[in-house]
């Protein structure tokens, strides 16, 4: 089984969870060697180089139609801190198709920045618009930035998702320290950031996804595809 993972702080609780979850050594070895940014994982998933992963919502559209999705995602209800638009010349972030599309849906102008780079920019006091906050102001719904989708081994991944959603994961100090050294973001700030992220998809989150997909249709924004 081949699982690809977004290599950002927003999945730190999943990192800790999966270390203790009963999987094969080959599964965990593959996961550690296939960590990247969302747009890269979108391609790997669409071309079936990986079986499953937290895939950008825009690239998980076909999976949702085929019901090859779990009830886990990367979600914010309001400000998210790590998906922002900076007041500079118009520019997309090559790392995230969903965030680039969301910027267009929200009619924002500027440079899109996501992930740990965006979080560090915010920590350093950089001027920005938080897209999670702006979406909630307009739609009064959570925004699902990524969704745990699969191509194969559905029963295994749905069970993994179920256990992840149920478990309250505390990040050990030594791992938090590693994250801080890697990103140059203080440990306390990382913990504050993670309070803005949650992972269980319910009715409101599914409605938020439907509204996002409808906006993509209205604005004729193309979704990633193999062709």
Which range best describes the helical content: under 10%, 10-25%, 25-40%, 40-55%, 55-70% or over 70%?
A: 40-55%
State the assembly state of the protein chains: single chain
Average pLDDT, all residues: 92
Shape: globular
What strand line-up does the widest sheet have?
A: 2-1-3-8-4-9
Could you name the CATH topology?
A: D-Maltodextrin-Binding Protein, domain 2
| Strand residue percentage | 15-25%
Q: Summarize the helix and strand pattern as letters.
A: EHHEHEHEEHEHEHEHHHEH
Count of individual domains: 1
**In the CATH hierarchy, what is the superfamily?**
Periplasmic binding protein-like II
Enzyme class: lyase
EC number: 4.2.1.151
Function: Catalyzes the dehydration of chorismate into 3-[(1-carboxyvinyl)oxy]benzoate, a step in the biosynthesis of menaquinone (MK, vitamin K2).
Pfam families: VitK2_biosynth
Any descriptors?
227 residues, alpha+beta, D-Maltodextrin-Binding Protein, domain 2, 6-stranded mixed beta sheet, globular, Chorismate dehydratase, menaquinone biosynthesis, Menaquinone_biosynth
